[in-house]
Structure formats: C-alpha cells, structure tokens
Write a structure and sequence with these properties.
two-stranded antiparallel sheet; alpha+beta; 34% helix; 262 residues; 7 helices
C-alpha cells in the first residue's frame, strides 16, 4: 500500500468523457477535433475565394461578356419562379451591404438586353467586374457585391411554363403612346423622384400625363450640363421610351425613376 511519503501506489484510474451523437454512436474527442478541422478548412477556402476576387479587382477590370451566364438549377424551375426570385433579390439586396446606387446600376445592367448599354452603366457607376460578368462586382470603394445567377440568366434545366407577365410594369408600357402635349394639362399633379447615376436625386412636380421625354427636359433645366441626349431613363430595369407617359409606367408613390447619365 502506498503512503504519503512516496511509496508504491496502485494503478491510477482514468476517466474518458464521450458525447453521444444523434445516431447513438459515442462522439469522441477525435471526432470533435476532426469536425473543427473541417469547419476551419471551409472557412479558409471561403477566405481564399474572397481574397482572390479582391486581388482580381485590384489588378483590373474585364469587359462585360457578350455570352449569357450558363448555370443549372438544383431542380427544374419555372420561369415565373425565377422572375419572382429576381424581384425579391433586387428589393432586398440594398439592405445588406453596399450603396443603393450601385445596386440600382447592377440591376439595370443585368436586365437590359443591350450589352453596350450595360457596359456603359457599369462604367458610369465605376463598377469593376473582375470575372467579366455580374456575379461578383466591386465599387470604387472596394465594396464587394454578389449577384446570384438567377438574376442574370435562366437555368439550362427550365421547367415548362406558360409565358407570364414581365418582371416590370415598364414592359407593358413600352408600347403605350403618350397623349398629345395639350392633354398633359388635364393630368393629375404628382411628384416624381428622379435618381441620376451621378449620385444626385431630383424631385420634380409634374402631371402624370407628362412624357418621359419631358422628364428629360426637366432634368436638363435643373442641371444644364445634363442634356437630353445624355440621358437614358429606366424603371424596374427596363429602359422607357421618350413617348411613354408617366402614368403608363406604373410609377408608385415610393418608386424612383433611374436616369443613366452618359
């Protein structure tokens, strides 16, 4: 028998603590270490991706590719569902990070079918796209913007679907002709908020029968350097022709007309 003076002692009992997993199998300390290692590895990979994109943005800016983004959904999806997801994303994206003006420019560039116009939108807003597409973009402050593929194109495995309404009320307005200028005086008085791509907002009082062309002339009156020819007016990502009346666009009280200034 051992004693306090350091004599021989019997074997020391050891205790092993285990945690039972949901499957009933004890989870050992080795399992916990392995799980922590996998989590750390995932975080490192994500950090490497972000860092590589940041470095790419610093190295330069690629022109917008003329080829549509190719991607495949995890399951076949209908066109209406894609359009709904797009609306939800563009409505909520500015609340997370970045400047609203940049999100508006990205939306306009993503939804126009004119590649030259899309490139002009990106250039005027100072947006860099290191991958040559809009999936990852950076503003002049270096803030990163991520646009999901469903906002840029439709998947290769689309499910059959009837053609639904467009994503914007402006599509229906594209074919609407404006009333004669003499009829504009009979319209309803409204205030239209106009957001210029040069980070400037205007609040214009006019009639709801006023045409987009007249809106451009009002903008020029407010800022003589911004001539009518330098303006392109958008609503919900669609360019609005000059002969369309404001009431035909479907502009709500909280909505904003986006004006791209060249």
């Amino acid at each position: 028998m051992g004693n306090c003076c350091g004599g021989p002692q019997g074997p020391v009992a050891t205790t092993t603590t285990t945690i039972t997993t949901g499957s009933g199998r004890p989870r050992t300390s080795t399992d916990r270490v392995a799980a922590a290692s996998r989590s750390e590895a995932r975080q490192q990979r994500q950090a490497q991706i972000v860092e590589s994109e940041r470095l790419a943005s610093e190295r330069g800016n690629l022109p917008l590719s003329a080829e549509p983004l190719q991607w495949k959904s995890s399951a076949p999806v209908k066109k209406a569902a894609i359009l709904k997801r797009r609306l939800e994303f563009w409505d909520t994206a500015p609340a997370y990070e970045g400047q609203r003006e940049i999100w508006d420019a990205l939306k306009a560039a993503a939804e126009t079918e004119d590649r030259t116009l899309a490139q002009a939108i990106l250039d005027s807003a100072g947006i860099k796209i290191p991958k040559g597409n809009l999936t990852v973009a950076y503003d002049e402050r270096g803030t990163r913007y991520v646009v999901p593929p469903f906002c840029l194109s439709f998947p290769s495995n689309m499910a059959p679907d009837d053609d639904g309404p467009g994503a914007a009320g402006a599509a229906a307005a594209a074919g609407a002709t404006a009333p004669e200028s003499s009829a504009a005086a009979d319209g309803v008085d409204i205030e239209v908020k106009v957001r210029l791509s040069i980070a400037k907002d205007l609040l214009l009082a006019m009639k709801d029968t006023t045409t987009i062309g007249e809106v451009k002339r009002r903008v020029q009156q407010e800022d003589g350097a911004i001539t009518v020819g330098r303006q392109r007016v958008f609503f919900c990502g669609k360019q609005i022709p000059d002969n369309v009346a404001i009431k035909a666009v479907g502009l709500g009280k909280m909505d904003v007309l986006q004006v791209l200034v060249f």
